[in-house]
Design a protein that fits this description.
By secondary structure, this protein is an alpha+beta fold. 24% of the residues lie in helices and 22% in strands.
Amino acid sequence: MADYFDSNGTPTYRDSPAPTYQEVIASDPVAAPARLRQTHPAHIEIPRVPRERYTSQDFFDREKERMWSRTWQVACRVEEVGEVGDCVLYDSPGAALIIMRSAPDVIKAFYNGCLHRGMKLCASDTSLNRIRCPYHGMTWNLDGSLQNLPARWDFDPVADSELALPEARVGIWGGFVFVNRDPDAPSLEEYLGPLIDEFADWSRDDVYLATRVTKVLNANWKCCMEAFIEAFHVAELHSQALPFGGDASTQYDVWGENGNVSRFCEPTGIPSDQYPTPITEAEIWKATFGAVTGDTNNVPPLPEGKTARGFLADMNRTELGRIFGEDFSHLTDAEACDPIQYSVFPNFILFKGLPYPFAYRFVPVGDSPDHTRFDFMIFRPKPKDGSDFPYVDQIDLGPNDTYADSGAFQPWHGLIYDQDCQNLGLQQEGLKAGGVKNVMFSRYQEVRLRFLHQTLMTYLEMKPMN
């Protein structure tokens, strides 16, 4: 490791005029918290992977049998099953699950198939006072115990306990309900490892899921994860962010001892090292304000002695505090304007940072390696008076619908996701028809991609689940 990184976690081979993230936050008027001043660099010897990992049905089937069956995955939020009997469905590759609040303080995950003839027990998110098969009427209590087996005299003698609904494991952290089908897997707390400490000062229990935007992407789930865990693509795909996107200054962290968690810290208000000419702070501010608001004609003047980054942090603390009815004056500049993003293997991404109350989930659709459901989750602070919060605003986008027109985003923000998602479809086409050469990863800016494949292969070397 010493050969690859200096004492600040910067690659010794880095050759860029852009400041590092640690240099950026060291210059912030309001110092970044200790967790952001720490680095966790990693060198992972996976420079290339076969493109068949993204396109092969056989490889996808191995993932389903050996990895998806053993990992902790976000199934829903606790508020989505707020009352006893509330249930939501989660289709993990290889298993359909009913996530149900079976008692005031108990959430269970039942396999969504009748023990009699395999009929799907629940067809949609709903609320129940019992679980009843719509085919022959076999019925269970909300805790999964058998309530009624019609014509029981006609079945071989069997104890009630043997007819209880099979369950997957359930764990809860930060208001997220996780499920795992492997009885021998580590606990959720072990699995999340450093993530728990990283969010100790950024509680996700204090927010609720306000909006979920769902779209099916024509790409492998790994392409989707990889597209959102690096900032290397920003300069080309999102060139409108060149003056302020901070792509080359992004810090990448990997907690290798855990195997599941990684992070990037991308500074806002810092120009890309690919920006073609020198740029002043006033020009950075004008580009930033114009991109965020769509208005380049009525840009507030940058105050004397202020950087574009510092002024944006001030505005975010004030304006978002007004919108949410919160006091954000205690937040540092980094927390007030930067996307600080964590990934949890295999398919979950969670943000810290005031302007980014987001999480992503990527789930393969059916048995195809070519299609992935992208669930974009937007959170809001829970009401201070303890009053109920609204049901989730579910927005389902069709193939030709755009994020920019969805109503869930400011147009500039929606444009970014439209660019990403269109790009992913083209990438999958290129992977399938662009020859046989292996896919290549950069050493530092794509280390989280290398990490994803390293973790994936540890599962695929295991025997299939019984």
